[in-house]
Amino acid sequence: MKFTFTCKKIALNDSIKEYAEKKISKLDRYFPEEADAFVTFAVEKKNRCVVELTIRTANGTLFRAQEEDPDGDMRGAINEAVAFIERRIRKNKTRLARNLRPDALTSNIPAEFDVVEEPEFDVVRTKRFAVKPMTTEEAILQMNLLDHTFYVFRNMDTSAVCVVYRRNNGGYGLIETQD
Prior knowledge:
One of its GO terms (biological process) is negative regulation of translational elongation. The protein contains 5 helices and 8 strands. By secondary structure, the protein is α/β, with parallel strands linked by helices. The protein starts with a strand and ends with a strand. The relative contact order is 0.10. The mean pLDDT is 82.
């Protein structure tokens, strides 16, 4: 696995990075080809250690986990992020088997794990609406007026379909599509 480390508001020693590499490398068994791991370490208010782990497989499948440790233990946050991704892989193992290494997903899960897999993705409601051209600011305003957590719109400047969303840690995010 290829690693990329980023630190925000913190300087880490090599032992933490080596620990992260060792723990995250255990997920390699699920991927047939080399995957890329992007790890961001941060310290937020009141010494909460936050680890954001994103793994991109060779076929483009993404796994993401953001975990925090309120006690200031970066190793604990790393462990939680790896465990979160492993639980996601186990939960969706048959769906992922089409994209990842099929033999790895069925044979590397210990028998003591209770794998509960959703039988299908049930779409319980479908909405259709016109995607109106507007600016990002107008879309955020419309989202807030509707009291939604996201809003789909067509960017007036680029004509691309975009999504604005409210982030959990405050502020807003923008997803822009491209052809």
